[in-house]
Design a protein that fits this description.
single chain; about 250 residues; alpha/beta; eleven-stranded mixed beta sheet; about 20% strand; globular
Length: about 250
């Protein structure tokens, strides 16, 4: 099973989720992937609406939605107080429950401490991935190692491979090894053009977050980086800037 563990469903936090746009994203994703984790930002506009729309428009198979033939595992990207981001992947009710627990942090503008988020994720048996650990504005690698060891994996981030260089894969794997964690790939895409820049190839099909977590724990997968990574990411970022400029001009 080919899966991307870090994807977004819209190109900006400040716009509503559109099923027609997301369907187009999944049509493009299906060229490279069998599954994605939909890890939209927790503080995006009207986060809860995303799953309300998916419940109406897409089939849910007790662990994932199906959109244009692609498995879509529910998830959320959470800012934590340590100025880092965590990808959380689970069943739709688990993600809804965690999102509800984050409501007060959305309202205040403060962020939940990492330890509290990890406890919450463990309660709901979710998969926990440390996002882009060496990104300058979200330096996860500086966080207390005893907390990082409680994660399941670190994110080999497609956008960071483009920005910082392909050696970033080695750096993330090296940190993951030191923490006795796995390292998995995520495109971090907000745009259809970026799908396929990085991929995880799992040995077996997975139907829910628990099975994904076990496959990662057993290292029953391999990561691939496309030869077209730089072209894919730069093209997607150019398109995203066009959308943002258009929004600002309205």
């Amino acid at each position: 099973m080919r899966i991307d563990f870090h994807t977004h469903g819209k190109w900006s936090k400040h716009i509503a989720f559109s099923y027609s746009y997301y369907s187009e994203m999944m049509k493009q994703a299906s060229r490279y992937l069998d599954a994605v984790a939909l890890t939209e930002h927790f503080n995006t506009i009207n986060f809860h609406h995303i799953f309300e729309v998916l419940d109406t428009e897409a089939l849910y198979e007790e662990g994932y939605y199906v959109v244009e033939g692609v498995k879509v595992f529910p998830g959320i990207e959470v800012d934590v107080a340590e100025k880092s981001h965590i990808l959380v992947i689970g069943g739709r009710e688990s993600i809804r429950a965690i999102s509800s627990q984050l409501d007060s942090f959305r309202a205040s503008g403060d962020f939940m401490p990492l330890e509290q988020l990890i406890d919450l994720c463990d309660e709901h048996r979710c998969l926990k991935i440390g996002a882009h650990p060496y990104r300058e504005e979200n330096p996860l690698y500086q966080v207390d190692k005893s907390l990082l060891k409680r994660l399941d994996a670190l994110d080999i981030n497609g956008r960071d491979l483009h920005k910082y260089g392909l050696d970033m894969e080695h750096r993330v794997k090296q940190l993951a090894d030191a923490l006795e964690l796995s390292a998995v790939a995520g495109s971090d895409t907000h745009q259809p053009l970026q799908f396929g820049c990085v991929t995880n190839v799992l040995d077996d099909e997975c139907a829910n977050a628990a099975e994904l977590k076990e496959a990662i724990r057993r290292r029953q997968y391999r990561c691939t980086v496309s030869e077209d990574l730089h072209a894919k990411v730069s093209s997607a970022e150019e398109e995203q800037m066009k959308y943002k400029r258009g929004l600002l001009l309205r």
